[in-house]
Amino acid sequence: MVLKATRPLPSLIALRAFDALVRQGSTGGAALELHVTHSAISHQIRKLEEELEVALVDRQNKGVHLTSAGRKLSQLVNGAFEQLRDIQTALPTSVPSGSLRIACAPALLARISKILDRFLREYPDVSLHLLPIDEAKNGTDLVISFGDHEVEGQRIAALGDIMYFPVCSPRLLNSSEPLRKPRDLERQTLLHEDDGYDWSRYFLAAGIPNLQGKRNVYLPNASLTIDAVIAGSGITISDYILAGEQLALGTLVRLFDIQFPAPHPYFIIMPPRGANDLAKAFSDWLMRELELIARVD
Length: 297
Hints:
By secondary structure, the protein is an alpha/beta fold. It has three domains: 12-88, Winged helix-like DNA-binding domain superfamily/Winged helix DNA-binding domain (Arc Repressor Mutant, subunit A), CATH 1.10.10.10; 94-161 and 264-294, 3-Layer(aba) Sandwich (D-Maltodextrin-Binding Protein, domain 2), CATH 3.40.190; 163-261, 3-Layer(aba) Sandwich (D-Maltodextrin-Binding Protein, domain 2), CATH 3.40.190.10. Helices cover 41% and strands 17% of the residues. The strands form three sheets. It has a five-stranded mixed sheet with strand order 2-1-3-11-4. Strand 6, helix 9 and strand 7 form a beta-alpha-beta unit. The radius of gyration is 21 Å and the shape is globular.
């Protein structure tokens, strides 16, 4: 008997972005629905077109105009997602419920807290307790960290290919000091959430390893650093996980096109005693969400 080769499935993340684009009628609307940037939606649509080897969107005109293939795919995708949404009520299996204690770094905690409504729609009987990373040793069900914190348990690399780049407030672009190239940063205030390592790596990637800012301000964590940047206090190094929402809203802008890989992945740490079903469900959900947020140009 000859077995027929199985055709690979197109990316479900890209299909989700395409479905949102069609329903919302614009890239901006899809980005707001999925809590990602405009470029993340555009990237996923191009990725889907490459996978299917067919044009789905007519880019000659403004707005969302689907090709004939795009219209056909829209009908199929909409029906498929409707069936997926019905799975919860169609299956006799029970949905995990109970209480979940999650410890997380401050900036990532702020980001995750704004997309939790999507998790709670799938698990309506769950009570979530979001705690600072310092509480990780006090009996949590799950820890989400960047880098290697001294927390016992099994580590899962949720995302390992994050790229770093400078971000600033739009008001700095119109200041008396121009920001047209990386060397212009020597006239700016640089904000740090570490001892300066991220900025030194950026300047190395930009080919100006000895450059320094006019002033340096050191803050205790990325959350406070991003708040200071939004207020116009300086420029910092960030990524699309932590700064993606502000970049989409326009309260932050990315500077230049030079980036470098983050030194550590985002880790999900399960307790030594093993994860319960609810913690596993949250871990799977979070990795899907972070993958969508991070997939940008």
